[in-house]
Amino acid sequence: MSERTGGLFEQAADGIFTVDERGHVTSVNLIMDRAMGHRRGDLVGTHCSQLLDATQQDTAALLLDGMRDGKRQRAEIWFRDVAGRQRIGSITCTPIIEQGRVSGALCIVRDVTQERRFAEELRQREKLAAVGQLVSGVAHELNNPLAGISAFAQLLEGAGPLTPEQRDAVDTIQMEAKRAAKIVSNLLLFSRQRQPERSSVDLNRVLADTLTLRRFVLSTEQIEVVTDFEPELPQTWADPFQLQQVVLNLLINAEHALTGRTGRRRVSLRTQRSGDRIVASVSDNGPGIPEEMRRRLFEPFFTTKPVGEGSGLGLAISHGIIRQHGGHLRHRSSTSEGATFEIELPILSGQTDGSHAPATTDAFGIPRQRRFLIVDNEPAVRQALQLHLRRTGCFADAVGDANSALALLATRTYGSIFLDLHLSDLAGEMLFAELVERDPDHAGRVIFASGELESPPVRRFLQDSGRPFVGKPFALSTVAAMLTQAATR
């Protein structure tokens, strides 16, 4: 090898090595030497299969067979770096032909681990966007029948005295309808791409909602969940969806740590106040984090998971989110007690205790002589709300489309209007815009309803409209009170 060629060989940005016809290494450049963490003298003379991960012996054999046939080969390989971490390489092996026969091969290896992880992160983002679109599309279709189920359960409650068995049945219907609606809401909230928006946040609620997303997986994996939430936990100023992203990442990591563990497997979630801070922790009773890996946990692209199972970005992103909120993400670990990650956040300024629920309005305070218009695409919702209003001494017309609503509004005056944003012939927003232009008095008496309150466009419209709104499913008494309040203005 000439001096100039030797210089190029040593200064190349990719790892280069040569092998003889039997596959033994004959030369290695500096980059390859550093990547493997071995001295060149130790590599030269070894079989090339020793450069690859133990699972890659079949790939090495195929590359050698192709070399002997005089074929240029390309493949993706796994190898171990100087720290023993698994890396991904793209290898090209070109046969070296001397005096008419193959005497070896020149192999060039490019470390593509980071590129693969970027690609995996992009795929995950695309999957998340697809989930967001899917959930957004079905959320309204699910929440409408759930609203009907909930509404009729409430009608049964108010129909008269119930036996204990009947009361249990109605309560179960209500509870399961609310549970299903919450699952849909949580999926929609988590999967949406949105700009961070901070508000007063109940950390207990964030942990509970996130746990709902993983409860089925945890139960099927037979992982016990233990919760210990401080009941009067002060609130913090944060983006609840970003916090949910952090907690979900910690939960998934805890599940992964318990994979393959025998005996009792447990994940614990806890919240508590610590001075002027609140702390949430996610713990597992897995094998813990090896000491040599702990200092690198929050490094981008560092992962202890096998190739293809983790991007190495989850903890790094989570650490950044908590730091942006003025908090800290810490960890502690031991081989006997597993791993614990703690989220520490500042308490909302000026708050001394937990959140307070807004006062509710008694539906029985509705004036008897009041006419309302119900405009909803779902027959069950219309029927249930109409029956409830009639029981309280009010009268209600109920229609399922915008044209029917406009026809009634042209001939009758209503104290207030219950308007679903999703109608079959005209969007609720368009009907409202028409009322603002043609009938501002009725427009000022509208109460909106939607099964997609988490949708950013829906939220923006509702905020811009200045009108009250309610999410589906809803309490009949709440809607009745809102309609009465709007009618008396």
Report on this model:
The chain is an alpha/beta fold and 489 residues long. It has three domains: 3-111, Beta-Lactamase; 198-353, Heat Shock Protein 90; 363-487, Rossmann fold. 44% of the residues lie in helices and 22% in strands. It is built from 16 helices and 17 strands. The protein has helices at residues 3-11, 30-36, 40-43, 57-68, 113-158, 164-191, 203-220, 240-257, 291-294, 314-324, 379-391, 402-409, 428-438, 440-443, 456-465, 476-487, and strands at 15-20, 25-28, 73-80, 86-98, 101-111, 199-201, 224-228, 236-238, 266-274, 277-284, 328-334, 338-346, 371-375, 395-399, 416-420, 446-450, 469-471. The strands form four sheets. The protein has a five-stranded antiparallel sheet, with helices on both faces. Strand 13 (371-375), helix 11 and strand 14 (395-399) form a beta-alpha-beta unit. The longest helix has 46 residues, at 113-158. The radius of gyration is 32 Å and the shape is elongated.
